[in-house]
Amino acid sequence: MAKEIREWIVAILIALAVVILVRMFLFTTYSVDGLSMDPTLEDGDRVIVNKFIYDISDIDRDDVIVFDSHQDASYVKRVIGVPGDTVEMKDRVVYVNGEALSEDYVVHQGETYLDNFTLETLGVEGDTIPEGQYLVLGDNRPVSRDSRDFGLISESDIIGEVQLRFWPFNEIAIDF
């Protein structure tokens, strides 16, 4: 009986160690708080974030990421501008490198908070986004706190890419 109990304890400890290692280095879960990514991600959605993806690939425009805000909670936003890009918004249209973005995921355009901006008005020196910096915007622009509020985000603050919405179960998704 004592041998069986020890075997169970060892198995449980190994399982816990594996779970802890996976959560620390590979994947983690986040709960979406607020409406800034609506309709892509809604308040209360639960997502899995791949923490190691950017160790093996580049951060791309349109990636939905989680990053540390250093103010309060972590944020979920969409990457709009990457290093070397010029970005501006005029009349509710975002232009990257002079071309208008097709943003089917932005549906809330009748409200107020859709400020025009340039990189200069966001406090960026020069004409392009510097290395290691990214411009992020929420999909629900009227209510989103994003690069229009706090400027560019640093690559070192990016926790990972949202790769799966698993809650609610009837809205499981992998393509954002």
UniProtKB/TrEMBL annotation:
As recorded in UniProt, its EC number(s) are: 3.4.21.89
**Record-annotated Peptidase S26 domain positions:** 5-167
Membrane topology (UniProt): Single-pass type II membrane protein
Q: Where in the cell is it found?
A: Cell membrane; Membrane
Give the matching PROSITE patterns.
SPASE_I_1 (PS00501), SPASE_I_2 (PS00760), SPASE_I_3 (PS00761)
Tell me the protein family, please. Answer: Belongs to the peptidase S26 family.
Its main subcellular localisation, reduced to a broad class, is: membrane
Stated name of the protein? Signal peptidase I
What parts of the sequence cross the membrane? 7-27
According to the UniProt record, what class of enzyme is this? hydrolase
Q: Name one GO biological process term.
A: signal peptide processing
Its biological purpose: Essential for cell viability.
GO CC annotation? plasma membrane
Which chemical reaction does it catalyze? Cleavage of hydrophobic, N-terminal signal or leader sequences from secreted and periplasmic proteins
Kindly give the Pfam families that the UniProt entry links to this protein: Peptidase_S26 (PF10502)
GO terms assigned for molecular function: serine-type endopeptidase activity; signal peptidase activity
Q: Which residues form the active site?
A: S36, K77
